[in-house]
Amino acid sequence: MEHMVREAVRYLGYGKHEADEKTFQLIRECFEELERIAKKRIVYRIFDLCMAEDGCIEIGRMHIESKGLLRNLSGCEKVILLGATLGVEVDLAMKRYSYTDMAKMVVLQACAAAQLEEYVDECQKKLGEEMEKEGYFLRPRFSPGYGDFSILHQKEILAMADTARRIGLTMTDGSMLTPTKSVTALIGLGRENENCHIGGCEACDKTDCTYRR
Fold first, then answer.
1. Which domain holds residue 133?
2. pTM reported for the whole predicted model
3. How far is CA 140 from CA 58, 95, 129, 157, 204, in A?
4. pLDDT at res. 3
5. CATH number of domain containing 167
6. Predicted confidence band at 69 (pLDDT cuts at 50, 70, 90)?
């Protein structure tokens, strides 16, 4: 919980400036509400990975041009496509507070982002333990919209992971996920253990890593 509280404070933009007790109390209230209303769900599928000679990444019928993702997946044989969500109930709560309590809506949004990140980290850790039994190690997850990995691939990932049917995760015409507190990502599977930080490159101090994005 303390980790999520710190993350929520960061999402709220306090940085090094300490949040006051009133803010911390509101954060705790929002996390308590999320525990009651969030319907956390995740789905994933594993695909073979092919690196074309022209540098294009091929996953099933999906063709991706991204230098950042190419570095991240270097040396991988397979890739996990995943989608995760906190559910529509969180969206409804944020919409309700946007009319009645804007401050709480902003804090709830930050807390939901922190909870989603924590949930996916936990799932990724368990998935990593399972894949190690098969001789594979996970790279940090990489989501559409990050760096030069186009957000337009969001639609293909949702379709390939069958997220609409399995967890109710869809997207708008503008490639935004709905429910909004959701995420899609790719996770490379390689035979070499690179000891990648689960939090990704931003949380890792190994600045000379070949796979750093």
1. 2-203
2. 0.88
3. 19, 32, 14, 17, 10
4. 87
5. 3.40.109.40
6. very high
